[in-house]
Amino acid sequence: MKAKVSIIMGSTSDMPVMQEAAKILDQFKIPFEINALSAHRVPEQVAEFAKNAHKRGICVIIAGAGGAAHLPGVVAAFSPVPIIGVPCRSSISLDGWDSLLSIVQMPPGVPVATVGLDAGQNAGILAVQILAAGNEEMITQLVSFKEDLKKKIMKANEELKEHKFQYRVNT
Predict the structure, then answer these.
(1) Does 112 map to a domain?
(2) Is 0.85 surpassed by the pTM of this model?
(3) All residues at 6 or more sequence positions from 25 whose CB lies less than 8 Å from its CB, including other chains
């Protein structure tokens, strides 16, 4: 089995966020790899990875990083496959704002699809949606996934009805 998605992160401190993407890929039975690569500490390895990922069958790269968060952009500079950037809060970040702005503000010609701060799960879902283009079986799985989300909210609203307040007007 060959990986179709590569999950990379600037350091293993990003793993709590990035494992949420891995859980989604597992749920949809999509083979993936997961590694730590630092744009600042091992830039040559990052460039080599990015240049060759598509040759190894990688169709989407999910890149998470905190602080200056250059990893997604550097990978996008070298790779022809779609890159999904995940800005991560870190011990050195400005509550994640530096990460978010570093990833979302890419120059023309070097796109990175950016999900919300610490949104590893959304990155995984977006990777599945990219892979599902033209694949009816995966589209069906995604429709079912979204229906399950709808059911969770409907159930939550039913449970909220149990909370009684004197001035509550919705029933």
Answers:
(1) yes
(2) yes
(3) 5, 7, 31, 32, 124, 127, 128
